[in-house]
Amino acid sequence: MPSTRASGRPRYGTLVIVGGHEDKTGERVIHRALVHRLGGGGLAIATVASEQPDALWREYAALFRTLGVADVRHLAIASRAEADAPEAMAALDGVRGVFFTGGDQLRITGLLGGTLAAERIRDVYETGGLVGGTSAGASVMSVTMLVSGAAEESHRLGGSLRMAPGLGLLPDVIVDQHFAERGRVGRLLGAVAQNPTILGVGIDENTAVLVEQAPDAPCFRVVGEGGVFVVDGQGASYTNVSEEEENRTLSLFGVRLHVLSQGDEFDLASRTPTNHPAEEVDAALGLRDGAS
To answer: Catalytic amino acids?
Structure first.
C-alpha cells in the first residue's frame, strides 16, 4: 500500500491509547471499542516493548479472536534488523490495525525508529487505520514521550524526569499512563512546565482515549472505568523551571486541569472538554444493561 505522505494527503485513522492493566476477562470495554473501530480488518499485535513477547502474544491473540477478529498476527521484533526484515513486512501487510503491548517504551522506539516496520505502521494510521497501545505502548504515541520520573511527590527541578522522542503519531500532546494508581500528577506537571504549549494527558488503568484526528475537529473520547486528566499549561502565567537551582520544587501558576470519565470528549483544537453520559459508550458497544 503506498504511503499517503507521498501525495501530501494523510487521512488519519484512530489512536487507542490505554493507561495499562485493561480488563481482559470481564466486559472488556476498551478492547470492544478497539475492535468496533477496526471494522473487520486484520490486527497485528506488536510485542516489541516486552521481554516476554510470546506470553503476551498468546494472551492478546486469544482475547481479540474471542471478540471476533479473525486475522490476528504477531509482530515480533527483537532487533533493528528484524524491523526491516520480510517477516515484519508480512506481519503488517494488509492489516487494518496495530496494537502495542506494554513493557519498556524505549525498546519500541529504539528497535523501530527509522525502520521499514515503523514506516508501515505510520502508513496504516495515515490511510485511516488504527494504532493502539497500552502502558509503554501508550507513551510512544506522542512526538515526545515520558520515559521516567519520580511519582507520588511534587516535581523537583533537575530531577529524574526523562523524556525522549516517541513514534510521533500524536502531536502537541504528551501521555502518561497508570496515572492515578502511581500518583504521576507531579511528573506530568513537570513535563508540561518544560513546554507549556503541549497538553499533558494522564490516563488511569483500565481506561483509554480514542483519538480521532480529523483536520476539522481533532478530539478524543474516554472509554473505561477510570479517569483521564488533561493538564493545559498554555495559559500559565509563571513557572520557575528555568530560574531556580536544581532540586527546588516546581512552581507553576495558571494551569488548567480537566478530569474526564467514560463518554466525555475533549476537543484538541479548542482545548475544551464536553460531557457525555457513560452509558452512550456501553450502548454503542452492546453492553447496555450489563450484557456481555
So the answer is: 135, 178, 205
Q: Count of CB atoms within 10 A of residue 234's CB?
A: 14
Say which CATH superfamily domain 11-290 falls into.
Class I glutamine amidotransferase (GATase) domain (3.40.50.880)
- Can you give the pLDDT at residue 150? 61
Q: For the purposes of burial, counting CB atoms within 10 Å of the CB of 80, is it exposed (0-12), middle (13-18) or buried (19 or more)?
A: middle
Residue 61 C-alpha cell reads as 491473540
Distance between CA 205 and CA 185 in Å, rounded? 14
DSSP for residue 142: B
Q: Which of 214, 216, 163 is nearest to 188 (CA)?
A: 163
pTM of the model: 0.91
CA dist 131 and 97 (Å) reads: 6
Query: Is residue 13 within 8 Å of 125, Cβ to Cβ?
Result: yes
| pLDDT tens digits along 220-270 | 999 999 999 999 999 999 998 877 667 788 888 999 999 999 999 999 999
| Contacts with 126 (C-beta within 8 Å, 6 or more apart), sequence order | 3, 4, 5, 10, 11, 12, 13
All three cell numbers of 23, joined, read 480488563
Q: Where are the domains of the chain?
A: 11-290
Mark 121-155 as b/e (b = at least 16 C-beta within 10 Å). bbbbbbbebbbbbbbbbbbbbbebbbbebbbeeeb
